[in-house]
DNA sequence: TGGGGTTAT
DNA sequence: ATAACCC
């Protein structure tokens, strides 16, 4: 784990084309003064009510995992490939002109020595990602994940405790440093709408009429992004806990027959069943998503979902029962609900999602609000991790 | 643009 | 079920 590098802070804002507004620490401005936190703690004299939130952003995460898996890759320009894209690359590669989400041909052209590894299977990335989150959870349980490579940690309590331990002479010797990012504006869709209003910089947004902005974007989005433009973000760090859904997808040039689709769906489902089995909880909903070929509108998807029949759910943990067959049947029904298989069709993506995860009914006598996942006895070489539920209702 | 994830409507 | 957002 100590091999996993964290992005140096100075790099966080500049290196990316993306909005640095989100990359900023979620720090409340001093003016939020009076409002007590959820814990309703007494704020110590001399300290503001500001929260302390660490934003931990792992650097070219997939590439780092690959270099740890295979140390021979270290020092070489490395790209992680998904389909025809280099989705991320290490710094050697970046120095030679490779960019994230560059297509493989351009990347090879820019950098003929580029070494490529396939990163379509996210298993190891996902595992390493949760190891990082678990490590951070040792500092504070309040850790919010964002994607596989970012975590927000609310360190407010830890910092307050440490400050209380300090002697006054130590306190006065404390110095705090930091820096401000030079921002650009926000999500893609909203950025487009803002640009239509003549808002292209954070300063534009700061000085724009709140009323007009509310009319344009709705009060919720308008007020939130305008506060964000001043660096104010009072949104809590919400512990992510275990995932709310498991999904696997595959994209391709063309899928135009039912058999073809069924084969792909079976592959996706098989991996998902492994994952869900290791997790220990049971999904109660299944969803199939497709993307149809079309020259425009490439980002649009359609999906159908349905409850998983209870007799299938029961079989889920039990290894020898065939749970594939009934679930593939369900998925193919969902498929035919979306795609008229008597007509020609052309799909470019299939995705299967298991969600609505519920904890099994293994309640320990009377303890309602704290219990563990059913662990694989004590011979735990399993992937099952125990976790606490935020909100619990147990089902079977 | 991949292969994921979340929340809001 | 979709749309928007995040990485």
From TrEMBL:
Transmembrane segments: none annotated. GO terms for molecular function: damaged DNA binding; DNA-directed DNA polymerase activity. Residues 1-46 are annotated as: Disordered. Keywords: DNA synthesis, Transferase. The keyword Hydrolase does not apply. Residues 7-20 have a biased composition (Acidic residues). GO terms for biological process: DNA repair; translesion synthesis. This is DNA polymerase iota isoform X5. It comes from Enhydra lutris kenyoni.
């Amino acid at each position: 784990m100590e091999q996993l590098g964290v992005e140096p802070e100075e790099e966080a804002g500049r290196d990316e084309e993306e909005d640095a507004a989100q990359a900023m620490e979620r720090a409340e401005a001093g003016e939020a003064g009076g409002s007590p936190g959820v814990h309703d703690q007494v704020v110590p004299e001399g300290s503001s009510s500001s929260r302390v939130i660490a934003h931990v952003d792992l650097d070219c995460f997939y590439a780092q995992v690959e270099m740890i898996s295979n140390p021979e890759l270290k020092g070489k320009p490395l790209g992680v490939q998904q389909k025809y894209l280099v989705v991320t690359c290490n710094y050697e590669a970046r120095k030679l002109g490779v960019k994230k989400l560059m297509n493989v041909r351009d990347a090879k052209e820019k950098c003929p020595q580029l070494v490529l590894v396939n990163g379509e299977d996210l298993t190891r990335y996902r595992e390493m990602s949760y190891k990082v989150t678990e490590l951070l959870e040792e500092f504070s349980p309040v850790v919010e994940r964002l994607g596989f490579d970012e975590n927000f940690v609310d360190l407010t309590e830890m910092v307050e405790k440490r400050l209380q331990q300090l002697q006054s002479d130590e306190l006065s010797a404390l110095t705090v440093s930091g820096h401000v990012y030079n921002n650009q504006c926000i999500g893609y869709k909203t950025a487009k709408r803002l640009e239509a209003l003549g808002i292209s910089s954070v300063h534009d947004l700061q000085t724009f009429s709140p009323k007009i902005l509310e009319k344009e974007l709705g009060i919720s989005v308008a007020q939130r992004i305008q506060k964000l433009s001043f660096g104010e973000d009072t949104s809590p760090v919400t512990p992510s806990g275990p995932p709310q859904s498991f999904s696997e997808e595959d994209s391709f040039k063309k899928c135009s027959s039912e058999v073809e689709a069924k084969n792909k769906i079976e592959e996706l489902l098989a991996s998902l069943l492994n994952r869900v089995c290791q997790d220990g909880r049971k999904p109660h909903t299944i969803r199939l998503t497709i993307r149809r070929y079309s020259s425009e509108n490439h980002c649009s998807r359609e999906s159908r979902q349905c409850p998983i029949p209870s007799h299938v759910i029961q079989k889920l943990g039990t290894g020898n029962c065939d749970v594939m067959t009934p679930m593939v049947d369900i998925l193919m029904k969902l498929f035919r609900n979306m795609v008229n298989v008597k007509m020609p069709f052309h799909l470019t993506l299939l995705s299967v999602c298991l969600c609505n995860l519920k904890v099994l009914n293994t309640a320990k006598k009377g303890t309602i609000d704290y219990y563990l996942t059913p662990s694989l006895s004590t011979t735990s070489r399993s992937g099952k991790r125990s976790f606490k539920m935020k909100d619990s209702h147990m089902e079977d």
